Sequence to fold (349 residues):
Amino acid sequence: MSTSPHAHPALHNAMWPGLVGKGPDSEPPIDLETMLCLTAQAHVDGTRFDGVDLFLSLPHTDIDSSDDDLARLADNLRAKGLRAGSLVAPVWPAAGGGSAMGGESERAAFLTQVRKACRIGRKLRDLGARSYGIIRIDSASGVEEWAKDPAANTKRIAATFRDACAIAGDSGERLAAEGEICWGGMHSWRRNVQLMEMVNRPRTLGFQADMAHTMLFTMGYNAPEDALLPAGFDWSDSEKLAAAYRRMADALRPWTIDFHVAQNDGTVKGSGSHGKTGHHCLPRDPNGKLDVVRDAGAWLRGEDGRPTLAFQHICWDGCMFPNAVMLDPQTWNDVLRLMIAVRDAHGWN
Fold:
């Protein structure tokens, strides 16, 4: 029986690490059923994962899933004691979407994927398999292309996001835009704040914070003008890192409605079709730079030190690990143990 002092937030595992960075130039994808089974089987002192966050793209969950497909998915989740949370909309050109700062056809493709993702989210709610979570998006645009005209491109991304908000609102969904150093207009903490303010749809659009990706913001990777740590920073200065990390989180926390627990070693990594972004590490990686439990508090607690209660679940994100690591059941027990520690430190009842 679980001895956790807190019932909330729920603990989820991300399914997309079975796909992101996999493919012809890397390792084969790991199918959804395998990822679900590994998640359902993980346990630490009586505690298990409560659910999963899903990637709405084949070979996992088809963005064009029929109602029957989604009913089978809901039944499968229930049979494993899991529920669905946040859903990743495949808004990128390679996945059938288009750049949020592109021409009309690209923006239309982006919005089509958002519309389809919202329909899946609503259907899973109707089926009783999902009661919380967001639809995850990003700009689906590269930094170099964005930098050719930052003002105009940011304005265009904001316009696309506002249109996406209208779609989400009609479905009773909320969108969360995940900032990463690889997404144009979302590649620094300051640019993300600017974009959120420009869209100005706080009831419908928020920020998705991944601990590993946002740590790169403090380094100013792809945006040296927004760095919060000096070049050649001494990583042994844990307190200075914590202060810079909290300063960054203070700026983005008011917008944050979805949260990923993760670790980072201060480097970038790309694999398969995925561009270079913050390098996720395993919970016990000695090269990890974050004090994950401490630094999770920068997102889960407000300036008054109290839990923000901004989301009902938190999710582990660990992309681009080798398949041998992903298929090892001990990996998911270690992840779950870390998630429990985060909830023990910052959760609520």
